Amino acid sequence: VFISQYATGQKEALRAVLKQKTQNTPVLKEVKVQLLGNASTEKKESVGQDTRSTHREVDSATTIAAATAAAIATTAPLLKVQNELEAKVNSVSALLHKLQETDRQLQHVAEQQTNRKTQYEKPHCHERVSELEKQMNAFMVQRIQHLEKLQEQQMNIQSHLISSAVNTGGLQQIHVPSSSLMTKQSEKPQQQLLTNEVSSCQRGLFPNS
C-alpha cells in the first residue's frame, strides 16, 4: 500500500495522479494450461509425421536421382555417337572442300596448258599427236582383248581343275604362266615405241623447254 500526501493547493497534481492510476489498470491475459501427458503424445505424433514426411522426401529424391542417372546412362552413348558422327561429317566436308579446290586448280592448269599448246603447236605435230592418240587407242583395245583372253583361259583352267578334283578326288597341279607376266611382256615393246614417239613430238612442240 502506497500513501501519498498532498498539500491543499495541489489539487491538480492529485487529479493527474489519479487519472494516471485509472489508466494503468491491469490487463487480464488468458493463459492456456497444457498437460504434460498430452503434450508428449502430441509431440510424438508430430515427430512421427515429420519422420514419415522426411522418408517420403528421401524416397522421392532417390527415385528422381535414379531416373536421372538412368536417363544419363541411356543418352550418353547416343550423345557420344552423335558427336562422332558430327566430327566425321565435318572431316568429310573439309576433305570434299579440299578436293573441289584441287580440282579447280587442276582444271585451271589444264586450260592453261591447252591454250599454250594451241598457240605454239605446229600443224604436222598436231597431226602426229592425233596419230599417236589413235595408236594408243588401238593399243588399249588390243590390251583389253588380250586381258579378256587371259581371263577366259583362267576360267577354263579353273573349271578344268574343279572338274578334275570332283572326278578324281584331288587337284592336279598344272603349270600356268602368270597372266601379269604375259601382259607385261606383250605391252613393253608397244609402250616403248609410243613413249619415244610422244617424247619426239613434245620436243618438236617445245624446242626451248
From TrEMBL:
- Gene Ontology cellular component? centriole; ciliary basal body
Q: Which GO terms describe its biological process?
A: smoothened signaling pathway
**Record-linked PANTHER family:** KIAA0586 PROTEIN, PROTEIN TALPID3
The name this protein carries in UniProt is TALD3 protein
Instruction: Write down the species.
Output: Thalassarche chlororhynchos (Atlantic yellow-nosed albatross)
